[in-house]
Amino acid sequence: MGTTVMLAIMVAGLAGAGWFIANQQQSMLAAQDRLDEANNRLEYLEERLSATDSAMSQEGDEGKCGEGKCGDAGKGDEGKCGEGKCGES
Question: What is the DSSP string of 53-86?
Answer without folding.
Answer: HHHHHHHHHHT-TTTT-S--TTS-GGG-TTSSSS
